[in-house]
Every structure is written in structure tokens, then in C-alpha cells.
Design goal:
- This protein has 333 residues and is α/β, with parallel strands linked by helices.
- It has 2 domains: 54 residues; 258 residues, TIM Barrel (Alpha-Beta Barrel), CATH 3.20.20.
- It contains 10 helices and 15 strands.
- The strands form 3 sheets. Strands 7-8-9-10-11-12-13-14 form an 8-stranded parallel beta barrel, surrounded by 7 helices. Strands 2-3-1-4 form a 4-stranded antiparallel beta sheet, with helices on one face.
- Helix 2 runs parallel beside helix 3 and helix 5 crosses helix 6.
- The two termini are 37 Å apart.
């Protein structure tokens, strides 16, 4: 249940009411909002005199539900990029899996400027499956990204691996990426909920749609409304591709949630030859964003070499996306 308290309720009273009703709470546009379990079907007696309006929800997909808010939430990235809301934009995010050197990330930034793409991705803290694989450049990488943003005027998205550096990523990035392996980390989710910054939440490869969106609820219930859901493939019985991109799940998210949806065909396919066709299929679904991995020389990449497009391959792909987007009334930004 979602309860909007009357505007004259101050923080001291709101905290007291939240404790009495065992609710999460946050402040929205000068008004406190309480969120209780969806199993609560009647307004608690303690809230009857202070509630402005309330919403009984069918599951603990609550703040993210179109039952609560019919329109897709708008997300502001940096100073000049909007997606969701009334915008028909599809945000194209590209760059290497990992930042490896100043030369490599500068080449990537030049590609984005050439194509008038606004948002650069690169990992600094890499949650690798093996402890012996490249783990990222850490803070050195974050500082490099900050320099590239300053020089090229790009927006930056980079990933949080664990709670030890979540504050640093929030400080440096324009979009905080919570990777699939961190989707269940409530410490990261709650910290992102307190940040006034867009968060891209990736679905864990073993998570149901219910679990995925409930992870987003941790961020939303902390007061951060700028959350994007990223489908990046789930683990199935199939072994010929890395994962299976759940486009059926994307249709569900678009129909039932009010959060912008981003697709990551690179991690789903896991092999470069399949990325262009899969990307075109993603655009045709009318999603709010795409996450494509590119690298100046993929064969030398220190992580996810097999799935990264080289810059010529990406240029060729990019030329095919705008006509598809235009055919369904959307625009690649």
C-alpha cells in the first residue's frame, strides 16, 4: 500500500507514523509518502486522519507499478538528455566493457563525438567471475572518465561492484550502473535510493521479473525516482549463446511498470556477430535505451573481448538504427 500523507505533516510526525505502521517512507515534492506491504489491504487506523490519498497494490511491485503511476517516469541524464516521460527518445550508450588506458577511452570518446552520441560507458570496478581476471582500474579509471567527460562533454555511466566504492561511483558518474551480480545487494540499492542521480539496474541472470522490479523498489522507496530497468539476458538451458535476451519480459515491463526500459544485447548474446541483429530487434520494441559494448581493438580487450564490436562495426550498425526507430516514432539520441 502507498500512502500520501497530508502536506502539513512534518518529518518528526512522518517518522513516527512510519514506525507505527511499519512503513518505509520518503519525501516527494514536499509531501511524505509511506509504503507498507502489499498484503495490507486496509488503511491503518493510525493513518486515517493524516492520509491525503492511498493506493492498494496487488503485489510488492508498488512504486514501479502503472497501477500507481500510469506514465513512464522521466529520467534526466546530465544537463541535456531526457528519456522516459513524454519523450520518444531511445538513449544509445556505448563504450568498452572496461576502461583500460587513457588512449583507449579517448578513442572511444572520439567515436561518440563523431556520431553525436551523448553517453559513454566503461567499467572501472569489474565484478568478474574469476578472481584471476582483470578487475578494473578502480579509482584511477574513475578519474580518467572524469577527465574525458570534461574534455568531450559526454555523460558517463559506470558500474558499482560492491559497497566499498558505491559513494565514489555516485560522485563521479552521471548514471550509476548496478550490475546483475549486485542486483540483490541491498546495501548498494539503499545507498542509490538516497542519491539524486539516475540509476541503471540490471536484471540478475537468475532473477524473475518480480524479483527484478522489487530490487528497483528498494531504490524508489529511498526517494530516488530516477531508476531505469536493464534487461541483459537470463540463464536458460541454451548453451550456444551466453544468455537468452528476454524480450517477452521486456514486453511485460513496458506494460506493467512505469520505469524506463533499457536493453543490453551485448551481454545477452556474448558473441559479436549476433549483436547487430539483436540490437535492431531491441530498437523495434520501442525501448528507452540501448547498451552496446564497443572497443577500438576487441581482440586485445581485457574483459568480454568476444562480445565487443570494433568501431567500424559499430558505425555500420548505427546507420541502420535510426530508420527502425523512426518507423515506430522514436529517435536515437
Amino acid at each position: 500500500m502507498i500512502i500520501h500523507l497530508k502536506e502539513n505533516i512534518d518529518e518528526i510526525e512522518a517518522v513516527k507514523l512510519a514506525e507505527q505502521s511499519r512503513s518505509a517512507y520518503y519525501k516527494k515534492h514536499g509531501q511524505y509518502v509511506l509504503i507498507t506491504s502489499s498484503s495490507d489491504k486496509e488503511l491503518p487506523a493510525a493513518l486515517e486522519s493524516v492520509a491525503d490519498e492511498y493506493f492498494v497494490m496487488s503485489s510488492d511491485i508498488q512504486l514501479a507499478s502503472r497501477q500507481y503511476r500510469a506514465q513512464v517516469r522521466e529520467v534526466q541524464v546530465g544537463k541535456n538528455v531526457q528519456l522516459g516521460g513524454a519523450h520518444d527518445n531511445t538513449l544509445l550508450i556505448t563504450g568498452p566493457c572496461s576502461i583500460e588506458s587513457k588512449e583507449q577511452i579517448t578513442q572511444s570518446a572520439n567515436l561518440l563525438k563523431e556520431l553525436n552520441i551523448t553517453t559513454l560507458r566503461a567499467g572501472c570496478f569489474k565484478p568478474r567471475t574469476s578472481p584471476y581476471s582483470f578487475q578494473g582500474l578502480g579509482m584511477e579509471g574513475l578519474r580518467m572518465l572524469a577527465e574525458v567527460r570534461e574534455e568531450y562533454g559526454l555523460n558517463i555511466i559506470t558500474e558499482v561492484r560492491d559497497a566499498t566504492h558505491v559513494d565514489a561511483v555516485i560522485e563521479y558518474a552521471d548514471i550509476v550502473q548496478v550490475g546483475s551480480k549486485a542486483m540483490y545487494d541491498q546495501g548498494i540499492l539503499r545507498t542509490c535510493g538516497k542519491a539524486n542521480k539516475p540509476v541503471l539496474l540490471k536484471r540478475h541472470f537468475g532473477a524473475t521479473l518480480q524479483e527484478f522490479v522489487q530490487a528497483a523498489e528498494f531504490i524508489l522507496s529511498g526517494g530516488n525516482e530516477q531508476v531505469m530497468l536493464c534487461e541483459r539476458g537470463i540463464r536458460t538451458f541454451e548453451t550456444k549463446t551466453r544468455f537468452s535476451l528476454d524480450l517477452c519480459g521486456v514486453a511485460y515491463l513496458k506494460e506493467h511498470t512505469n520505469l524506463p526500459v533499457v536493453l543490453d544485447p551485448s551481454h545477452a548474446m556474448g558473441i559479436a556477430y549476433g549483436i547487430p541483429d539483436l540490437t535492431r530487434a531491441c530498437v523495434a520494441m520501442g525501448v528507452d535505451g540501448l547498451l552496446i559494448e564497443t572497443h577500438p581493438t576487441p581482440k586485445t580487450a581485457k574483459s568480454d573481448a568476444a562480445q565487443q564490436l570494433n568501431h567500424d562495426e559499430f558505425r555500420a550498425l548505427y546507420r541502420t538504427l535510426e530508420p527502425i526507430a523512426g518507423a515506430i516514432g522514436r529517435r536515437i539520441i
